[in-house]
Amino acid sequence: MHKKLFIPGPVDVREDVLEKLATPQIGHRTQEATQLQDDITKKLQKVFQTESTVLLSSSSGTGLMEGAVRSCTKNKVAVFACGAFGKKFYKICQGNNIAADLYEVEMGEAITVEFVEECLKNDDYDVITLQHNETSTGVTNPIGEIGEFLKENYPDIIFIVDTVSSMGGVNIPVDKWGIDVCITSSQKCMGLPAGFSFLSITDRAIEKARTLENRGYYFDLVMLYDKDKAKHQYPSTPSLPHMFALDYQLDRILDETLEERFKRHEEMAEVVRDFGREYFELFVKEDKYLSNTVTCIKNTKDIDIGKLNKALSEKGYMISNGYGDLKDKTFRISHMADYTLDDVNGLLNTIKDILNL
Ligand SMILES: *Cc1c(COP(=O)(O)O)cnc(C)c1O
């Protein structure tokens, strides 16, 4: 039986979107391929709310995270982490021999402007990285405030933001917030199968990247950028099935309108939070940092989450246990992409039935 995925990625993909994956192949050096990439990037600019160039990658989002720090760092990265995905940037830096300092806050807390301000005094950083939405804890960081602070105080720093689990589900005005490199994947709020990702990049970040050596090859953002500028094509063979489905899904997203989509995500989040508060506790310490795409619930009743998931699977659902150290201490319910309030209520009622709540 198919299980409806309420895990924070991959999420369920609509049948009509899945069908687009089976579109007959086209040559990747044809005018058709150029048109397809051009259409996609124009639509993505609307979702990202940016005038900057949007680049595609036939990899999951982690590839572009690696490409971003590798292509943009000359001196040292300040990596901010409020959970597992934040730390990923640090591991990427280590693996690429890029100088980096890791600044962590406790799980369940957000990265505040004050924290960023304190940490940036420690060294001469030219790049900072952080998550907009930390999927392991259900925290949304105040990216707009941090962007404003950087613009005023550190205008030369390249601001890299991972929006993998929020872009397409919540409002992220990339240009307004001053994000230089904004990264997301296909399999979360965008509602597509995994294995594809995209980012927006400012011209100043690209110009800086041009001055750096050893940017890697497959994830060299300058190479992706130049190929896009020249022909709206991809340097190697892209995942054309993803591109067909993405083009179609972007029309759906823009037809729904971003406003309605954000509102729907907020409504689904509120229902899950109410459930979490009523029967358990929310893991995030301050309400203003609660994520609209994934809710992390403290396992205050000490339920066996593995058992719950097994019972759920018999009813056609799947949720997620906590991430890493939080495995049995929390569980996570995602509410992203194309789910509706009815879908979410169906899940919550099933959980209540199973646990006799
Ligand atoms: C899922 C996720 C990633 C990893 O993305 P992949 O597409 O799996 O490589 C990175 N950051 C965040 C915040 C995520 O939720």
Strand order of the largest sheet: 2-10-9-8-5-3-4
The second-level CATH architecture of the largest domain is 3-Layer(aba) Sandwich
Q: How far apart are the termini?
A: 26 Å
Structurally, how many domains make up the residues?
A: 2
- Sketch the major β-sheet: 7 strands, mixed
Count of individual beta strands: 15
The helix/strand series, from N terminus to C terminus, equals EHHEHEHEHEEEHEEEHHHHEEHEEEH
Map the helices and strands.
Layout: E1 4-5, H1 15-20, H2 31-48, E2 53-57, H3 61-72, E3 77-81, H4 84-95, E4 100-104, H5 113-120, E5 127-131, E6 133-134, E7 139-140, H6 143-153, E8 158-162, E9 181-185, E10 197-201, H7 203-210, H8 221-231, H9 240-256, H10 258-279, E11 281-282, E12 294-298, H11 305-314, E13 317-318, E14 320-321, E15 330-334, H12 341-355
Parallel strand pairs: 1-13, 3-4, 3-5, 5-8, 8-9
Antiparallel strand pairs: 2-10, 6-7, 9-10, 11-12, 12-15, 14-15
Helix pairs in contact: 2-9, 9-10, 10-12
The protein binds pyridoxal-5'-phosphate.
Pyridoxal-5'-phosphate (PLP) binds next to helix 3.
Please tell me about this protein's structure.
- The protein is of the alpha/beta class and 357 residues long.
- Helix content is 42%, strand content 16%.
- It folds into two domains: 4-10 and 257-355, Aspartate Aminotransferase, domain 1 (Alpha-Beta Complex); 15-255, Type I PLP-dependent aspartate aminotransferase-like (Major domain) (Aspartate Aminotransferase, domain 2), CATH 3.40.640.
- The protein has twelve helices and 15 strands.
- A seven-stranded mixed beta sheet has the order 2-10-9-8-5-3-4, sandwiched between helices.
- Strand 3 (77-81), helix 4 (84-95) and strand 4 form a beta-alpha-beta unit.
- The longest helix has 22 residues, at 258-279.
- The mean pLDDT is 98.
- The structure holds pyridoxal-5'-phosphate (PLP).
